[in-house]
């Protein structure tokens, strides 16, 4: 009774239709599934939202026995299992959130061969009782989700993942599939080695979305900028506008609506009925704009989203990539547009500092933000920077479909300008024991006698008025870039500016500070601040 690969393929496709209700496989799904159904090990690298789950769920359904899924995301297990059950898949989980009775029931189902999928937290496999349980049932496939957790150098290292190499020893005949969304080449090799998957076939999906044009513009009047962008390039198109706060979501949706762009709000503060209604209008109608917090978009599969706009800075490149990735799933040209400015940097830095979480959490959040800022400030190809972040090789020549490729930004030597900003911060701190935010620093540099400048006698400082070679927007640009480069930092709830360890090298003239030219920079001030 031999079944060729053809039979397995058609059974996989039939399962895709019957159970999941999808038309066709995406990308490499079909190849991956065929390989695993045939008993092969696999390492799958696919961006978030790429469709990794089906790569093990379908083999689990097609092969006899239960598919065992190792996942560190305990909080999601209940939802995942509920979603599968709603499709008629017999799924269960075992983790620390369950009471004894619940666990017993799942164990019994597994032993009776009544489970298609069993989700397990990795720490369960350290317990001999769990291994013993697994030995007494029939396993169709092991799926190791978030496989990068095995990497000691990554952000998400889980010591329990190191024990997963024993799966191959104890169950040599059960295929194993490891999946991850973020992995550099090094992590990739670490996964192969530590999970003991030497014979695994590697499936590396490209993170590139060539039909998405990436653009990041300097923020001036974001809602108006958004409106012109929509009118000029996306009139009548469906799209998503992301804002940070509920309040800003509401106001932006109203602004667009009152300016002739059909838009509805979506955020967690709206009641469930309204949210569901707006979501289903977005899916059904042509050309509706949803203005949303990041609460919107998970699991939304609308192929003809023509643009994704960000009015506020995402916290990480992962988030940015995932959100912009909702544009253009049909392969048609689409735009990822973002307005970004000094206040975004200050706000995000403040959020990290005043937010919950320990020191390690803050460090990680800062590192994520730094990478995001580097993407915003780069003078190189944005796509190249994104791909490099995910460990993939960008084209050396640039992509030709992002703003920096289409209109390469000029850079200028901002060393002197940087020194002026930093000296002002130093003077205030050393001579007066004061700390101020960006607005006051810029007023001092420009020599403006505002009420607050007079109140604090800041017109008496030696740095008062030393920055008249640049205009206000340019100084804000300089400060923004210094913050992004870590040459200046934000402190406390008022967002006061303070020096960093790296600031000293600029003040001592030990390093140069190349800066991106702010658009429409007058020629006169260029030479004034330049070398
Ligand atoms: P990942 O785990 O890679 O982040 P998921 O497996 O959650 O991605 O899939 C992302 C979304 O794409 C889900 O809503 C899923 O149902 C959908 N999806 C996956 N594969 C297909 C397909 N072949 N056809 C249509 N939708 C798909
Ligand atoms: Zn490019």
From TrEMBL:
It is an enzyme of class 5 (isomerase). One of its GO terms (cellular component) is replisome. Keywords: ATP-binding, DNA damage, DNA recombination, DNA repair, DNA-binding, Helicase, Hydrolase, Isomerase, Metal-binding, Nucleotide-binding, Zinc. One of its GO terms (biological process) is DNA recombination. One of its GO terms (molecular function) is four-way junction helicase activity. Residues 222-376 form the Helicase C-terminal domain. Belongs to the helicase family. RecQ subfamily. This is DNA helicase RecQ. The chain holds residues 13 to 543 of 673 of the full protein.
């Amino acid at each position: 009774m031999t079944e060729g690969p053809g039979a397995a393929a058609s059974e996989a496709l039939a399962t895709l239709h019957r159970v999941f209700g999808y038309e066709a496989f995406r990308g490499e799904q079909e190849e991956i599934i065929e390989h695993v159904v045939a008993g092969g090990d696999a390492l799958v690298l696919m961006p978030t939202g790429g469709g990794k789950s089906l790569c093990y769920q379908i083999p689990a359904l097609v092969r006899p026995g239960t598919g065992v899924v190792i996942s560190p995301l305990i909080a999601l297990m209940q939802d995942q299992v509920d979603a599968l059950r709603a499709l008629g898949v017999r799924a269960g989980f075992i983790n620390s959130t369950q009471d004894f009775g619940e666990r017993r029931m799942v164990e019994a189902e597994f032993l009776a061969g009544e489970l298609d999928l069993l989700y397990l937290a990795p720490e369960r496999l350290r317990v001999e009782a769990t291994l013993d349980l697994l030995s007494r049932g029939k396993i169709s496939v092991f799926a190791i989700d978030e496989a990068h957790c095995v990497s000691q150098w990554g952000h998400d290292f889980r010591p329990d993942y190191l024990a997963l190499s024993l799966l191959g020893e104890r169950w040599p005949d059960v295929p194993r599939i490891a999946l991850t969304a973020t992995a550099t080449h090094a992590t990739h090799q670490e996964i192969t080695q530590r999970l003991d998957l030497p014979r695994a076939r590697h499936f590396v999906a490209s993170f590139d979305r060539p039909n998405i044009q990436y653009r990041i513009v300097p923020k001036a009047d974001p809602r108006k900028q958004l409106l012109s962008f929509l009118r000029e390039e996306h009139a009548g198109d469906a799209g998503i506008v992301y804002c940070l706060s509920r309040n800003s979501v509401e106001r932006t949706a109203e602004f667009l609506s009152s300016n002739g762009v059909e838009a509805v709000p979506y955020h967690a503060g709206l009641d469930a009925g309204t949210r569901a209604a707006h979501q289903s209008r977005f899916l059904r109608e042509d050309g509706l704009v949803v203005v949303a917090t990041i609460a919107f978009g998970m699991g939304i599969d609308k192929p003809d989203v023509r643009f994704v706009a960000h009015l506020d800075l995402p916290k990480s490149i992962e988030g940015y990539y995932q959100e912009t990735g909702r544009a253009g799933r049909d392969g048609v040209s689409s735009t990822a547009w973002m307005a970004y400015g000094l206040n975004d940097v200050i706000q995000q830095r403040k959020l990290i500092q005043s937010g919950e979480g320990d020191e390690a959490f803050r460090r990680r959040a800062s590192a994520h933000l730094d990478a995001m800022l580097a993407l915003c400030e780069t003078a190189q190809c944005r796509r190249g920077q994104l791909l490099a972040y995910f460990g993939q090789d960008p084209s050396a020549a640039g992509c030709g479909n992002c703003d920096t490729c289409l209109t390469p930004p000029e850079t200028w030597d901002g060393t002197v300008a940087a020194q002026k900003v930093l000296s002002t911060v130093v003077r205030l701190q050393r001579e007066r024991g004061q700390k101020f935010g960006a607005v006051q620093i810029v007023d001092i540099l420009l020599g403006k006698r505002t009420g607050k400048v007079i109140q604090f006698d800041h017109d008496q400082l030696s740095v008062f008025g030393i920055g008249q070679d640049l205009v206000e927007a340019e100084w804000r640009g300089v400060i923004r870039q210094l913050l992004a480069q870590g040459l200046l930092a934000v402190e406390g709830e008022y967002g006061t500016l303070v020096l960093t360890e790296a600031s000293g090298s600029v003040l001592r003239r030990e390093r140069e500070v190349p800066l991106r030219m702010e658009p429409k920079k007058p020629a006169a001030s260029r030479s004034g601040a330049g070398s």
